[in-house]
Amino acid sequence: MFLANADVRKVARLARLAMDETEIEAARTQLSGIFALIAEMQAVDTQGIAPMSHAQDVAQRLREDIVTEANQRELFQSIAPQVEAGLYLVPQVIE
Amino acid sequence: MQWEIVIGLEVHAQLSTSSKIFSGASTAFGAEPNTQADAVSIALPGVLPVLNKGAVERAIKFGLAVGAHIAPHSVFARKNYFYPDLPKGYQISQFDLPVVGQGALTIQVEPLSGNAKPYEKVVRITRAHLEEDAGKSLHGDFHGMTGIDLNRAGTPLLEIVSEPDMCSAAEAVAYAKALHSLVRWIGICDGNMQEGSFRCDVNVSVRKTGAPLGTRREIKNLNSFKFMQQAIDYEVQWQIGTLENGGKIQQATILFNPDTGTTHAMRSKEDAHDYRYFPDPDLLPLDITPAMLEQVRATLPELPQARRERYTSEYALSAYDANSLTASREMADFFEAVLAEMSPSPQSSPASGRGGERENQSSTSAKMCANWLIGEVSAQLNRDGLEMTQCPITPQQLGGMLQRIADSTISNAGAKDVFRAMWSEGGDADAIIEAKGLKQVSDSGAIEALVDEIIAANADKVTEYRSGKDKLFGFFVGLAMKASKGKANPAQLNEILKRKLSG
Protein backbone atom coordinates (compact mmCIF):
# COMPACT_ATOMS: atom_id res chain seq x y z
CA MET A 1 0.00 0.00 0.00
CA PHE A 2 1.52 3.33 -1.13
CA LEU A 3 -1.14 5.72 0.07
CA ALA A 4 -3.30 6.08 3.12
CA ASN A 5 -6.87 7.37 2.92
CA ALA A 6 -5.66 10.52 4.67
CA ASP A 7 -3.33 11.24 1.72
CA VAL A 8 -6.20 10.87 -0.71
CA ARG A 9 -8.36 13.17 1.39
CA LYS A 10 -5.62 15.81 1.39
CA VAL A 11 -5.12 15.65 -2.37
CA ALA A 12 -8.88 15.77 -2.88
CA ARG A 13 -9.14 18.86 -0.72
CA LEU A 14 -6.30 20.59 -2.61
CA ALA A 15 -8.06 19.78 -5.89
CA ARG A 16 -11.43 20.91 -4.48
CA LEU A 17 -12.97 17.47 -5.07
CA ALA A 18 -15.81 16.33 -2.82
CA MET A 19 -15.38 12.58 -2.30
CA ASP A 20 -17.22 10.21 0.01
CA GLU A 21 -15.50 7.35 1.83
CA THR A 22 -16.29 4.76 -0.88
CA GLU A 23 -14.82 7.02 -3.56
CA ILE A 24 -11.78 7.73 -1.43
CA GLU A 25 -11.17 4.02 -0.97
CA ALA A 26 -11.50 3.43 -4.74
CA ALA A 27 -9.21 6.35 -5.55
CA ARG A 28 -6.68 5.11 -3.03
CA THR A 29 -6.52 1.69 -4.74
CA GLN A 30 -6.16 3.24 -8.19
CA LEU A 31 -3.59 5.84 -7.15
CA SER A 32 -1.61 3.16 -5.29
CA GLY A 33 -1.51 1.20 -8.53
CA ILE A 34 -0.05 4.22 -10.29
CA PHE A 35 2.53 4.67 -7.55
CA ALA A 36 3.47 1.01 -7.88
CA LEU A 37 4.11 1.57 -11.57
CA ILE A 38 6.21 4.63 -10.76
CA ALA A 39 8.23 2.62 -8.24
CA GLU A 40 8.87 0.03 -10.92
CA MET A 41 10.14 2.75 -13.28
CA GLN A 42 12.25 4.31 -10.53
CA ALA A 43 14.12 1.02 -10.26
CA VAL A 44 15.46 1.38 -13.82
CA ASP A 45 19.03 2.65 -13.92
CA THR A 46 18.91 6.10 -15.54
CA GLN A 47 22.40 7.18 -14.53
CA GLY A 48 23.81 9.64 -17.09
CA ILE A 49 20.52 10.21 -18.89
CA ALA A 50 19.20 13.79 -18.79
CA PRO A 51 15.65 13.88 -17.42
CA MET A 52 12.92 14.88 -19.88
CA SER A 53 10.25 17.39 -18.92
CA HIS A 54 8.02 16.45 -21.81
CA ALA A 55 7.10 13.19 -23.51
CA GLN A 56 8.13 14.56 -26.89
CA ASP A 57 11.80 15.36 -27.31
CA VAL A 58 11.29 18.64 -29.18
CA ALA A 59 11.77 22.25 -28.15
CA GLN A 60 9.22 25.04 -27.75
CA ARG A 61 8.48 27.14 -30.81
CA LEU A 62 8.16 30.83 -30.15
CA ARG A 63 5.49 33.26 -31.30
CA GLU A 64 6.37 36.77 -32.53
CA ASP A 65 5.29 39.50 -30.11
CA ILE A 66 2.31 40.77 -32.08
CA VAL A 67 -1.26 41.45 -30.93
CA THR A 68 -3.48 39.11 -32.95
CA GLU A 69 -6.57 38.81 -30.75
CA ALA A 70 -9.54 41.14 -31.17
CA ASN A 71 -11.97 41.95 -28.38
CA GLN A 72 -14.58 39.17 -28.12
CA ARG A 73 -15.90 40.04 -24.69
CA GLU A 74 -19.56 39.91 -25.63
CA LEU A 75 -19.23 36.48 -27.18
CA PHE A 76 -17.32 35.09 -24.19
CA GLN A 77 -19.62 36.71 -21.64
CA SER A 78 -22.73 35.37 -23.37
CA ILE A 79 -22.03 32.00 -21.71
CA ALA A 80 -20.95 33.38 -18.32
CA PRO A 81 -23.40 32.79 -15.43
CA GLN A 82 -23.30 36.44 -14.32
CA VAL A 83 -21.65 39.59 -15.63
CA GLU A 84 -21.84 43.25 -14.76
CA ALA A 85 -20.01 46.35 -16.03
CA GLY A 86 -17.87 44.10 -18.19
CA LEU A 87 -16.79 42.01 -15.20
CA TYR A 88 -17.34 38.31 -14.59
CA LEU A 89 -19.12 37.99 -11.25
CA VAL A 90 -18.19 35.20 -8.85
CA PRO A 91 -19.15 34.36 -5.27
CA GLN A 92 -17.44 36.79 -2.94
CA VAL A 93 -13.82 36.05 -2.04
CA ILE A 94 -12.43 37.71 1.04
CA GLU A 95 -8.69 38.19 1.44
CA MET B 1 23.34 41.94 22.31
CA GLN B 2 23.27 43.29 18.79
CA TRP B 3 20.48 42.40 16.34
CA GLU B 4 21.26 41.73 12.72
CA ILE B 5 18.71 42.32 9.95
CA VAL B 6 18.49 39.93 6.99
CA ILE B 7 16.53 40.97 3.90
CA GLY B 8 15.91 39.33 0.54
CA LEU B 9 13.66 40.61 -2.26
CA GLU B 10 11.40 39.06 -4.85
CA VAL B 11 10.53 41.53 -7.55
CA HIS B 12 7.89 41.05 -10.22
CA ALA B 13 8.78 43.11 -13.27
CA GLN B 14 6.10 43.28 -15.92
CA LEU B 15 7.78 42.78 -19.28
CA SER B 16 7.05 45.45 -21.86
CA THR B 17 5.74 43.20 -24.61
CA SER B 18 2.78 44.22 -26.78
CA SER B 19 1.07 40.87 -26.42
CA LYS B 20 0.64 38.39 -23.56
CA ILE B 21 3.12 35.71 -22.66
CA PHE B 22 1.05 32.80 -24.00
CA SER B 23 -1.41 34.45 -26.41
CA GLY B 24 -1.86 37.27 -28.91
CA ALA B 25 -4.07 39.43 -26.65
CA SER B 26 -2.93 42.99 -25.95
CA THR B 27 -1.22 43.92 -22.67
CA ALA B 28 -2.04 47.66 -22.88
CA PHE B 29 -2.84 49.14 -19.47
CA GLY B 30 -6.19 50.71 -18.64
CA ALA B 31 -8.51 49.03 -21.18
CA GLU B 32 -12.19 48.39 -20.42
CA PRO B 33 -12.57 45.26 -18.24
CA ASN B 34 -12.12 41.94 -20.07
CA THR B 35 -11.74 43.50 -23.53
CA GLN B 36 -8.19 42.11 -23.64
CA ALA B 37 -9.11 38.76 -22.16
CA ASP B 38 -9.00 36.29 -25.05
CA ALA B 39 -9.83 32.59 -25.01
CA VAL B 40 -6.42 31.73 -23.49
CA SER B 41 -6.63 34.45 -20.82
CA ILE B 42 -10.03 33.24 -19.65
CA ALA B 43 -8.93 29.59 -19.93
CA LEU B 44 -11.62 28.25 -22.23
CA PRO B 45 -11.29 24.46 -22.46
CA GLY B 46 -9.13 23.22 -25.31
CA VAL B 47 -6.98 26.32 -25.79
CA LEU B 48 -3.20 26.01 -25.73
CA PRO B 49 -0.46 28.44 -24.70
CA VAL B 50 2.12 29.58 -27.28
CA LEU B 51 5.19 31.27 -25.84
CA ASN B 52 5.95 34.89 -26.77
CA LYS B 53 9.44 35.38 -28.20
CA GLY B 54 9.51 39.00 -26.95
CA ALA B 55 9.12 37.83 -23.35
CA VAL B 56 11.95 35.32 -23.70
CA GLU B 57 14.25 37.93 -25.25
CA ARG B 58 13.58 40.35 -22.41
CA ALA B 59 14.34 37.68 -19.82
CA ILE B 60 17.63 36.88 -21.59
CA LYS B 61 18.47 40.58 -21.75
CA PHE B 62 18.01 40.89 -18.01
CA GLY B 63 20.13 37.82 -17.37
CA LEU B 64 22.96 39.20 -19.48
CA ALA B 65 22.72 42.58 -17.72
CA VAL B 66 23.30 40.99 -14.30
CA GLY B 67 26.01 38.67 -15.59
CA ALA B 68 23.88 35.59 -15.02
CA HIS B 69 23.99 32.18 -16.57
CA ILE B 70 21.23 31.86 -19.19
CA ALA B 71 19.84 28.34 -19.11
CA PRO B 72 20.14 26.71 -22.55
CA HIS B 73 17.20 24.56 -21.51
CA SER B 74 14.45 25.70 -19.17
CA VAL B 75 11.04 24.36 -18.28
CA PHE B 76 7.59 25.82 -17.58
CA ALA B 77 5.68 24.41 -14.63
CA ARG B 78 2.18 24.66 -13.26
CA LYS B 79 1.78 26.26 -9.86
CA ASN B 80 -1.58 25.03 -8.64
CA TYR B 81 -3.94 27.05 -6.49
CA PHE B 82 -7.55 28.15 -6.61
CA TYR B 83 -8.56 31.78 -6.90
CA PRO B 84 -11.20 33.32 -9.16
CA ASP B 85 -8.74 35.63 -10.90
CA LEU B 86 -6.76 32.56 -11.98
CA PRO B 87 -9.27 30.78 -14.22
CA LYS B 88 -7.08 27.80 -15.15
CA GLY B 89 -6.61 26.83 -11.50
CA TYR B 90 -2.87 27.10 -11.98
CA GLN B 91 -0.34 29.76 -12.88
CA ILE B 92 2.22 28.94 -15.56
CA SER B 93 5.59 29.68 -14.02
CA GLN B 94 9.05 28.16 -13.87
CA PHE B 95 10.24 26.09 -10.95
CA ASP B 96 13.39 23.99 -10.90
CA LEU B 97 14.75 25.05 -14.29
CA PRO B 98 14.38 28.88 -14.57
CA VAL B 99 15.60 30.78 -17.63
CA VAL B 100 18.00 33.04 -15.69
CA GLY B 101 20.42 31.58 -13.16
CA GLN B 102 22.75 33.22 -10.62
CA GLY B 103 23.85 36.79 -11.23
CA ALA B 104 24.72 39.92 -9.29
CA LEU B 105 23.85 43.61 -9.12
CA THR B 106 26.07 46.39 -7.79
CA ILE B 107 24.11 48.90 -5.73
CA GLN B 108 24.88 52.37 -4.35
CA VAL B 109 23.62 52.65 -0.78
CA GLU B 110 22.69 56.01 0.75
CA PRO B 111 22.53 55.29 4.49
CA LEU B 112 19.52 56.82 6.21
CA SER B 113 21.40 58.04 9.27
CA GLY B 114 22.88 61.47 8.65
CA ASN B 115 26.60 60.97 9.20
CA ALA B 116 27.15 57.61 7.47
CA LYS B 117 28.84 57.71 4.07
CA PRO B 118 27.36 56.28 0.87
CA TYR B 119 28.90 52.96 -0.13
CA GLU B 120 28.75 50.34 -2.84
CA LYS B 121 27.60 46.76 -2.36
CA VAL B 122 27.13 43.71 -4.54
CA VAL B 123 23.81 41.89 -4.12
CA ARG B 124 23.63 38.36 -5.47
CA ILE B 125 20.68 37.42 -7.62
CA THR B 126 19.54 33.86 -7.09
CA ARG B 127 17.47 33.46 -10.23
CA ALA B 128 14.88 35.06 -12.47
CA HIS B 129 12.03 33.20 -14.09
CA LEU B 130 9.23 33.85 -16.55
CA GLU B 131 5.62 33.55 -15.48
CA GLU B 132 2.15 34.87 -16.23
CA ASP B 133 0.28 37.42 -14.15
CA ALA B 134 -3.19 36.71 -12.74
CA GLY B 135 -6.32 38.81 -13.29
CA LYS B 136 -7.80 41.31 -10.87
CA SER B 137 -10.51 40.81 -8.27
CA LEU B 138 -12.70 43.82 -7.58
CA HIS B 139 -14.42 43.75 -4.24
CA GLY B 140 -16.77 46.58 -5.05
CA ASP B 141 -20.52 46.84 -4.86
CA PHE B 142 -21.68 43.89 -6.92
CA HIS B 143 -24.61 42.61 -4.78
CA GLY B 144 -22.22 40.72 -2.49
CA MET B 145 -20.36 39.21 -5.44
CA THR B 146 -16.78 39.75 -6.57
CA GLY B 147 -16.04 41.20 -10.01
CA ILE B 148 -13.27 39.65 -12.09
CA ASP B 149 -11.28 41.49 -14.75
CA LEU B 150 -8.98 39.18 -16.69
CA ASN B 151 -7.23 41.80 -18.83
CA ARG B 152 -4.07 41.41 -16.76
CA ALA B 153 -4.23 37.59 -16.79
CA GLY B 154 -1.40 36.28 -18.95
CA THR B 155 0.69 39.46 -18.84
CA PRO B 156 4.37 38.40 -18.88
CA LEU B 157 6.29 38.80 -15.64
CA LEU B 158 9.91 38.27 -14.78
CA GLU B 159 10.21 37.29 -11.12
CA ILE B 160 13.66 38.31 -9.91
CA VAL B 161 14.77 36.65 -6.68
CA SER B 162 17.71 37.98 -4.66
CA GLU B 163 19.84 36.26 -2.05
CA PRO B 164 19.21 37.52 1.52
CA ASP B 165 22.21 39.84 1.14
CA MET B 166 20.73 43.09 2.41
CA CYS B 167 20.99 44.07 6.05
CA SER B 168 19.08 47.36 6.32
CA ALA B 169 16.06 49.12 4.87
CA ALA B 170 18.48 51.46 3.09
CA GLU B 171 20.16 48.54 1.34
CA ALA B 172 16.85 46.96 0.37
CA VAL B 173 15.63 50.25 -1.08
CA ALA B 174 18.95 50.79 -2.88
CA TYR B 175 18.69 47.33 -4.42
CA ALA B 176 15.07 47.86 -5.49
CA LYS B 177 15.98 51.23 -7.00
CA ALA B 178 19.00 49.80 -8.83
CA LEU B 179 16.86 46.99 -10.22
CA HIS B 180 14.10 49.43 -11.17
CA SER B 181 16.61 51.62 -12.98
CA LEU B 182 18.21 48.62 -14.71
CA VAL B 183 15.00 47.10 -16.13
CA ARG B 184 14.07 50.49 -17.56
CA TRP B 185 17.62 51.11 -18.75
CA ILE B 186 17.66 47.90 -20.81
CA GLY B 187 14.08 48.50 -21.96
CA ILE B 188 12.40 45.34 -20.68
CA CYS B 189 9.88 46.95 -18.25
CA ASP B 190 8.34 50.42 -18.06
CA GLY B 191 8.84 50.46 -14.29
CA ASN B 192 5.50 52.16 -13.64
CA MET B 193 4.91 51.34 -9.99
CA GLN B 194 1.44 52.91 -9.75
CA GLU B 195 0.25 50.63 -12.55
CA GLY B 196 1.88 47.63 -10.87
CA SER B 197 4.59 47.11 -13.48
CA PHE B 198 7.20 46.72 -10.75
CA ARG B 199 6.08 45.04 -7.51
CA CYS B 200 8.29 44.11 -4.60
CA ASP B 201 7.92 41.38 -1.98
CA VAL B 202 10.36 41.76 0.89
CA ASN B 203 11.47 38.89 3.13
CA VAL B 204 12.59 40.14 6.53
CA SER B 205 14.10 38.30 9.46
CA VAL B 206 16.31 39.26 12.39
CA ARG B 207 18.92 37.33 14.35
CA LYS B 208 21.50 37.86 17.05
CA THR B 209 24.89 38.52 15.48
CA GLY B 210 26.40 35.24 14.36
CA ALA B 211 23.30 33.16 15.10
CA PRO B 212 21.58 31.03 12.43
CA LEU B 213 18.97 32.75 10.21
CA GLY B 214 15.76 33.72 12.01
CA THR B 215 12.24 32.94 10.80
CA ARG B 216 11.23 35.30 8.03
CA ARG B 217 8.00 37.13 7.31
CA GLU B 218 7.23 38.22 3.77
CA ILE B 219 5.85 41.71 3.17
CA LYS B 220 3.80 41.46 -0.02
CA ASN B 221 3.20 43.83 -2.91
CA LEU B 222 5.06 46.99 -1.98
CA ASN B 223 4.63 49.48 -4.80
CA SER B 224 6.68 52.43 -3.61
CA PHE B 225 10.21 52.77 -2.30
CA LYS B 226 9.00 54.97 0.54
CA PHE B 227 6.51 52.34 1.70
CA MET B 228 9.21 49.71 1.41
CA GLN B 229 11.44 51.57 3.78
CA GLN B 230 8.61 52.27 6.24
CA ALA B 231 7.39 48.67 6.09
CA ILE B 232 10.86 47.22 6.75
CA ASP B 233 11.56 49.66 9.60
CA TYR B 234 8.28 48.80 11.27
CA GLU B 235 8.62 45.06 10.69
CA VAL B 236 12.19 44.93 12.03
CA GLN B 237 11.16 46.75 15.22
CA TRP B 238 8.16 44.47 15.59
CA GLN B 239 10.25 41.30 15.20
CA ILE B 240 12.95 42.48 17.61
CA GLY B 241 10.30 43.56 20.12
CA THR B 242 8.54 40.21 19.85
CA LEU B 243 11.75 38.23 20.35
CA GLU B 244 12.99 40.39 23.21
CA ASN B 245 9.70 39.86 24.99
CA GLY B 246 10.23 36.12 24.74
CA GLY B 247 7.90 35.63 21.79
CA LYS B 248 8.46 33.59 18.64
CA ILE B 249 8.22 34.63 15.00
CA GLN B 250 5.83 32.56 12.91
CA GLN B 251 6.52 32.40 9.20
CA ALA B 252 3.81 34.51 7.57
CA THR B 253 2.76 36.61 4.64
CA ILE B 254 2.05 40.15 5.73
CA LEU B 255 0.73 43.38 4.28
CA PHE B 256 1.83 46.94 4.91
CA ASN B 257 -0.80 49.56 5.63
CA PRO B 258 0.53 52.94 4.46
CA ASP B 259 -2.16 54.81 6.43
CA THR B 260 -1.11 53.42 9.80
CA GLY B 261 2.51 52.65 8.91
CA THR B 262 2.13 49.15 10.33
CA THR B 263 2.31 45.59 9.03
CA HIS B 264 -0.23 42.87 9.69
CA ALA B 265 -0.41 39.16 8.87
CA MET B 266 -2.75 37.96 6.13
CA ARG B 267 -5.11 35.19 7.15
CA SER B 268 -2.91 32.15 6.75
CA LYS B 269 -4.65 29.65 4.54
CA GLU B 270 -4.33 25.99 5.25
CA ASP B 271 -2.32 24.20 2.54
CA ALA B 272 -1.53 27.62 1.06
CA HIS B 273 2.02 26.65 0.18
CA ASP B 274 1.28 23.26 -1.30
CA TYR B 275 1.42 24.38 -4.92
CA ARG B 276 2.16 20.91 -6.35
CA TYR B 277 4.40 22.21 -9.13
CA PHE B 278 4.82 19.92 -12.11
CA PRO B 279 6.05 20.49 -15.69
CA ASP B 280 3.27 21.93 -17.84
CA PRO B 281 2.46 19.29 -20.45
CA ASP B 282 1.01 22.04 -22.70
CA LEU B 283 4.41 23.64 -23.13
CA LEU B 284 7.59 22.13 -24.49
CA PRO B 285 10.94 22.94 -22.89
CA LEU B 286 12.40 26.31 -23.84
CA ASP B 287 15.72 25.92 -25.64
CA ILE B 288 17.82 29.05 -26.00
CA THR B 289 20.37 28.62 -28.74
CA PRO B 290 23.77 30.38 -28.70
CA ALA B 291 22.60 32.29 -31.80
CA MET B 292 19.57 33.71 -29.97
CA LEU B 293 21.76 34.59 -27.01
CA GLU B 294 24.16 36.52 -29.21
CA GLN B 295 21.31 38.24 -31.00
CA VAL B 296 20.01 39.57 -27.69
CA ARG B 297 23.49 40.42 -26.43
CA ALA B 298 23.94 42.67 -29.48
CA THR B 299 20.94 44.77 -28.38
CA LEU B 300 22.29 45.35 -24.87
CA PRO B 301 23.21 49.01 -24.23
CA GLU B 302 26.18 50.11 -22.14
CA LEU B 303 25.02 49.36 -18.58
CA PRO B 304 24.68 51.87 -15.72
CA GLN B 305 27.61 50.44 -13.77
CA ALA B 306 29.92 50.66 -16.81
CA ARG B 307 28.83 54.24 -17.43
CA ARG B 308 29.36 55.21 -13.81
CA GLU B 309 32.89 53.88 -14.00
CA ARG B 310 33.53 55.64 -17.28
CA TYR B 311 32.22 58.95 -15.92
CA THR B 312 34.54 58.82 -12.94
CA SER B 313 37.58 57.65 -14.89
CA GLU B 314 37.16 59.52 -18.18
CA TYR B 315 35.62 62.77 -16.94
CA ALA B 316 36.97 62.70 -13.38
CA LEU B 317 33.44 63.17 -12.01
CA SER B 318 32.71 62.39 -8.37
CA ALA B 319 30.94 59.17 -7.47
CA TYR B 320 27.94 61.26 -6.45
CA ASP B 321 27.74 62.98 -9.83
CA ALA B 322 28.25 59.72 -11.71
CA ASN B 323 25.46 58.07 -9.70
CA SER B 324 23.04 60.94 -10.21
CA LEU B 325 23.71 61.08 -13.94
CA THR B 326 23.16 57.34 -14.36
CA ALA B 327 19.94 57.25 -12.33
CA SER B 328 18.19 56.77 -15.65
CA ARG B 329 19.36 56.10 -19.16
CA GLU B 330 17.53 59.23 -20.37
CA MET B 331 19.53 61.36 -17.96
CA ALA B 332 22.84 59.72 -18.93
CA ASP B 333 22.11 60.04 -22.64
CA PHE B 334 21.12 63.69 -22.18
CA PHE B 335 24.36 64.34 -20.34
CA GLU B 336 26.42 62.83 -23.13
CA ALA B 337 24.48 64.68 -25.79
CA VAL B 338 25.12 68.01 -24.04
CA LEU B 339 28.78 67.14 -23.69
CA ALA B 340 29.03 66.26 -27.37
CA GLU B 341 27.52 69.67 -28.11
CA MET B 342 30.15 71.42 -26.01
CA SER B 343 33.08 69.44 -27.28
CA PRO B 344 35.02 70.80 -30.24
CA SER B 345 36.00 67.35 -31.53
CA PRO B 346 33.35 65.85 -33.82
CA GLN B 347 34.05 62.19 -32.96
CA SER B 348 32.65 62.49 -29.45
CA SER B 349 29.10 61.45 -30.24
CA PRO B 350 27.20 60.04 -27.25
CA ALA B 351 27.43 56.50 -28.59
CA SER B 352 31.16 56.51 -29.11
CA GLY B 353 32.25 59.06 -26.51
CA ARG B 354 34.90 56.77 -25.14
CA GLY B 355 38.02 58.35 -26.65
CA GLY B 356 40.65 59.60 -24.28
CA GLU B 357 42.70 62.65 -25.30
CA ARG B 358 40.70 65.69 -24.41
CA GLU B 359 40.70 64.92 -20.68
CA ASN B 360 41.20 68.33 -19.11
CA GLN B 361 38.88 70.29 -21.30
CA SER B 362 36.22 67.60 -21.27
CA SER B 363 36.52 67.10 -17.53
CA THR B 364 35.76 70.80 -16.92
CA SER B 365 32.87 70.70 -19.39
CA ALA B 366 31.62 67.46 -17.84
CA LYS B 367 31.67 68.89 -14.33
CA MET B 368 29.81 72.02 -15.47
CA CYS B 369 27.31 69.95 -17.40
CA ALA B 370 26.80 67.57 -14.45
CA ASN B 371 26.21 70.51 -12.09
CA TRP B 372 23.55 71.98 -14.34
CA LEU B 373 21.80 68.67 -14.97
CA ILE B 374 21.79 67.54 -11.35
CA GLY B 375 21.03 71.05 -10.14
CA GLU B 376 18.98 73.42 -12.23
CA VAL B 377 17.57 70.96 -14.81
CA SER B 378 16.49 68.33 -12.25
CA ALA B 379 15.02 70.99 -9.99
CA GLN B 380 12.97 72.49 -12.82
CA LEU B 381 11.78 69.06 -13.98
CA ASN B 382 10.71 68.30 -10.42
CA ARG B 383 8.92 71.61 -10.05
CA ASP B 384 7.03 71.10 -13.31
CA GLY B 385 6.40 67.40 -12.65
CA LEU B 386 8.16 66.37 -15.85
CA GLU B 387 10.24 63.35 -16.82
CA MET B 388 13.66 63.72 -18.42
CA THR B 389 12.13 62.74 -21.77
CA GLN B 390 9.71 65.69 -21.49
CA CYS B 391 12.45 68.23 -20.80
CA PRO B 392 11.58 71.40 -22.74
CA ILE B 393 15.26 72.17 -23.28
CA THR B 394 17.23 70.11 -25.80
CA PRO B 395 20.84 69.02 -25.26
CA GLN B 396 21.74 71.39 -28.10
CA GLN B 397 20.21 74.35 -26.29
CA LEU B 398 21.82 73.55 -22.96
CA GLY B 399 25.17 72.76 -24.56
CA GLY B 400 25.08 76.06 -26.43
CA MET B 401 24.47 77.94 -23.21
CA LEU B 402 27.19 76.14 -21.25
CA GLN B 403 29.56 76.97 -24.08
CA ARG B 404 28.82 80.65 -23.47
CA ILE B 405 29.60 80.28 -19.78
CA ALA B 406 32.83 78.49 -20.64
CA ASP B 407 33.99 81.25 -22.99
CA SER B 408 32.98 83.95 -20.47
CA THR B 409 30.32 85.51 -22.69
CA ILE B 410 27.86 85.23 -19.79
CA SER B 411 28.25 84.92 -16.04
CA ASN B 412 26.69 82.13 -14.00
CA ALA B 413 24.04 84.57 -12.84
CA GLY B 414 23.35 85.57 -16.44
CA ALA B 415 23.19 81.90 -17.39
CA LYS B 416 20.35 81.39 -14.92
CA ASP B 417 18.37 84.09 -16.74
CA VAL B 418 19.14 82.46 -20.10
CA PHE B 419 18.12 79.08 -18.70
CA ARG B 420 14.79 80.36 -17.38
CA ALA B 421 14.03 82.00 -20.72
CA MET B 422 14.93 78.84 -22.62
CA TRP B 423 12.79 76.74 -20.34
CA SER B 424 9.66 78.83 -20.73
CA GLU B 425 10.03 80.36 -24.19
CA GLY B 426 12.60 78.24 -26.03
CA GLY B 427 15.22 79.71 -28.32
CA ASP B 428 18.96 79.27 -28.42
CA ALA B 429 21.42 80.78 -25.97
CA ASP B 430 23.00 83.31 -28.32
CA ALA B 431 19.64 84.77 -29.31
CA ILE B 432 18.52 85.05 -25.68
CA ILE B 433 21.81 86.61 -24.58
CA GLU B 434 21.45 89.16 -27.36
CA ALA B 435 17.78 89.92 -26.72
CA LYS B 436 18.22 90.27 -22.96
CA GLY B 437 21.53 92.08 -23.19
CA LEU B 438 23.20 89.57 -20.90
CA LYS B 439 26.57 89.66 -22.54
CA GLN B 440 29.29 90.12 -19.93
CA VAL B 441 31.51 93.15 -19.97
CA SER B 442 34.98 91.71 -20.32
CA ASP B 443 36.49 94.94 -21.54
CA SER B 444 38.95 95.73 -18.74
CA GLY B 445 38.97 99.44 -19.60
CA ALA B 446 35.21 99.68 -19.02
CA ILE B 447 35.44 97.77 -15.77
CA GLU B 448 38.31 99.90 -14.53
CA ALA B 449 36.38 103.09 -15.21
CA LEU B 450 33.45 101.74 -13.31
CA VAL B 451 35.61 100.73 -10.36
CA ASP B 452 37.29 104.13 -10.30
CA GLU B 453 33.92 105.83 -10.04
CA ILE B 454 32.88 103.63 -7.13
CA ILE B 455 36.11 104.17 -5.27
CA ALA B 456 35.76 107.91 -5.72
CA ALA B 457 32.16 107.93 -4.51
CA ASN B 458 32.85 105.82 -1.39
CA ALA B 459 36.01 107.27 0.01
CA ASP B 460 35.03 106.54 3.62
CA LYS B 461 34.44 102.85 2.95
CA VAL B 462 37.69 102.66 1.02
CA THR B 463 39.55 103.98 4.02
CA GLU B 464 37.86 101.44 6.28
CA TYR B 465 38.75 98.65 3.86
CA ARG B 466 42.36 99.74 3.65
CA SER B 467 42.58 99.84 7.44
CA GLY B 468 41.77 96.13 7.55
CA LYS B 469 38.01 95.70 7.20
CA ASP B 470 38.35 93.00 4.52
CA LYS B 471 34.69 92.11 4.69
CA LEU B 472 33.85 95.29 2.80
CA PHE B 473 35.20 93.72 -0.39
CA GLY B 474 31.81 92.13 -0.99
CA PHE B 475 30.16 95.51 -0.63
CA PHE B 476 32.32 96.89 -3.45
CA VAL B 477 31.67 93.86 -5.65
CA GLY B 478 27.95 94.36 -5.12
CA LEU B 479 28.12 98.04 -6.07
CA ALA B 480 30.19 97.32 -9.17
CA MET B 481 27.93 94.52 -10.29
CA LYS B 482 24.93 96.76 -9.81
CA ALA B 483 26.59 99.55 -11.77
CA SER B 484 27.36 97.13 -14.62
CA LYS B 485 23.77 95.77 -14.45
CA GLY B 486 25.24 92.40 -13.55
CA LYS B 487 27.20 92.17 -16.72
CA ALA B 488 30.76 92.61 -15.49
CA ASN B 489 32.87 89.51 -15.84
CA PRO B 490 33.14 88.48 -12.15
CA ALA B 491 36.69 87.17 -12.33
CA GLN B 492 37.93 90.29 -14.02
CA LEU B 493 35.97 92.55 -11.72
CA ASN B 494 37.43 90.86 -8.64
CA GLU B 495 40.92 91.18 -9.96
CA ILE B 496 40.58 94.88 -10.85
CA LEU B 497 38.80 95.79 -7.61
CA LYS B 498 41.42 94.06 -5.51
CA ARG B 499 44.19 95.84 -7.35
CA LYS B 500 42.61 99.31 -7.14
CA LEU B 501 41.44 98.98 -3.54
CA SER B 502 44.81 97.97 -2.28
CA GLY B 503 45.73 101.35 -3.69
The total tally of domains of chain B equals: 3
Oligomer: heterodimer
Name the CATH class of the domain at 5-42 in chain A: Mainly Alpha
**Protein structure class of chain A:** mainly alpha
Low-confidence stretches of chain A: none
Helix content of chain B: 25-40%
The rough form of chain B would be described as elongated
Q: Which H/E pattern describes the elements of chain A?
A: HHHEE
Number of β-strand runs of chain B: 15
Strand order in space, largest sheet of chain B: 5-6-9-1-10-11-12-13
SSE sequence of chain B, one letter per element: EHEEEEEEEEHEEHEEEEHHHHHHHHHHHH
Shape of chain A: flat
Given the structure, what is the number of helices of chain A? Answer: 3
> Which percent range describes the beta-strand content of chain A?
5-15%
> Helical element count of chain B?
15
Kindly describe this structure.
The complex is a heterodimer of chains A (95) and B (503). Chain A has 95 residues and is mostly helical. Chain A has a domain at 5-42: Orthogonal Bundle (Histone, subunit A), CATH 1.10.20. Chain A contains 3 helices and 2 strands; from the N terminus they run αααββ. In chain A, strands 1-2 form a two-stranded antiparallel sheet. The mean pLDDT of chain A is 91. Chain B has 503 residues and is of the alpha+beta class. Chain B has 3 domains: 3-295, no CATH class; 304-436, no CATH class; 444-501, Arc Repressor Mutant, subunit A. Helix content of chain B is 39%, strand content 19%. Chain B has helices spanning 53-65, 169-185, 225-244, 290-297, 304-314, 319-325, 329-342, 359-384, 395-406, 412-425, 429-436, 444-457, 459-466, 472-483, 490-501; strands at 3-14, 73-74, 76-80, 90-94, 103-109, 119-132, 136-142, 145-149, 156-162, 198-208, 217-222, 252-257, 262-265, 278-279, 286-287. An 8-stranded mixed sheet of chain B has the order 5-6-9-1-10-11-12-13. Chain B has a 3-stranded antiparallel sheet with strand order 4-3-14, with no helix packed on it. In chain B, a hairpin with a 2-residue loop joins strand 7 and strand 8 (145-149). In chain B, helix 9 runs antiparallel to helix 10, helix 12 packs across helix 15 (490-501) and helix 14 (472-483) packs across helix 15. The longest helix of chain B has 26 residues, at 359-384. The radius of gyration of chain B is 30 Å and the shape is elongated. Chain B starts with a strand and ends with a helix. Residues 345-357 of chain B have low confidence and may be disordered. Chains A and B meet through helix 1, helix 3 and strand 2 of A and helix 1, strand 7, strand 8 and strand 15 of B.
